[in-house]
Amino acid sequence: MQCKNNLKQLALGCLNHENATGRFPTGGWGWGWTGDADRNNDWRQPGGWLYNILPYVEQQALHDAGLGSAVTAERRNAIAQSCMTPLTLMNCPTRRQAITYPDLYIGPPGSYRTTTIGSITTTLAARPDYAANASDTLPASPGWLPDNRGDPGMDPPPTYWRDSENMYRFTRYTGICYCRSEISMADVSDGTSNTYLVGEKYLNPDYYFTGQDWSDNENLLVGWDNDQYRLGQHYYGQDRAGYGGFGLEGFGSAHANGFQMAFCDGSVQMMNYTIDPETHRRLCNRKDGMVIDGKKF
């Protein structure tokens, strides 16, 4: 029940964000970046969906860490501290406590996690047990992004996104939140009650507390990454010790009877582990126009 309530609040935060801005929270820039309160809430915001909904889940102060101040060590420390602040809302009590865990972030050689105002380091991090629906297919962790660390504040940010092949790649995502996304309610043409918004993410319990799972090694305020985004094409189910090793990108849970998913209408449902894979995939696609049999989930 506590986990369901967490998801309900996260979904409400996303819906209030959409109501206030005209779009669901953007997916941010990449796993090498964290949120910046001075950079709006559209594609220019490096922080991911969890960072962007903080003002809508009664965490305005955490969102605004370092806002408007000079680029100083004090400001960088404030942002780093926000990345290390656990929130009960972000963790399923069946799985783990809302505390800090080892931050084993590894970026390009010699680099640290980046903000638009300079690099930060964190040895411990707050982590989420919930992820946004990115797509029914395609990877949920494209890499460092962006690649212009020499001038991290440039606008528009990375040369990577101006490459036509990569731009096409991002337009192919069919979910709600992904890299630089700006999805509105009107874009959910399959219907809000037939489209996942956010849900529980699958994790290998061997690595709940270590940070050694590639899909669970970042803090909860970074951008586009498989820690905070999941897909409909990957394995979903109950957490299994030793199953699949690292880096899975599917939904799942520590619960015995199913994994909970919040839909774009704000409802939260327990999805049985035996849900038809094709039905599950379709629920991750906001616009495929395919009929979904409600009896199958």
Model description:
The chain has helices at 2-21, 49-52, 60-63, 73-83, 159-162, 164-171, 277-283, and strands at 100-102, 113-115, 118-120, 124-126, 130-135, 196-200, 229-231, 237-238, 252-253, 259-263, 268-271. The protein is an alpha+beta fold and 297 residues long. A five-stranded mixed sheet has the order 7-5-6-10-11, with helices on one face. It is globular, with a radius of gyration of 18 Å. The model is unreliable at 147-156 (pLDDT under 50).
Give a quick rundown of the structure.
With about 300 residues, this protein is an alpha+beta fold.
Number of domains: 1
Strand portion: 5-15%
**What is the typical, i.e. mean, pLDDT?**
84
* Residue windows where pLDDT falls under 50 for at least 5 positions: 147-156
- Portion in helices: 10-25%
Terminus-to-terminus distance: 19 Å
User: What is the approximate shape?
Assistant: globular
Q: What's the helix count?
A: 7
Classification by helices and strands: alpha+beta
Return Rg in Å.
18 Å
Tell how many strands the DSSP assignment holds.
11
Give, in spatial order, the strands making up the sheet with the most strands. 7-5-6-10-11
The biggest beta sheet is recorded as:
5 strands, mixed
Sequence-ordered SSE layout with sheet pairings:
Elements (H helix, E strand, L loop, with lengths): L1 H20 L27 H4 L7 H4 L9 H11 L16 E3 L10 E3 L2 E3 L3 E3 L3 E6 L23 H4 L1 H8 L24 E5 L28 E3 L5 E2 L13 E2 L5 E5 L4 E4 L5 H7 L14
Parallel strand pairs: 5-7, 8-9
Antiparallel strand pairs: 1-4, 2-3, 5-6, 6-10, 10-11
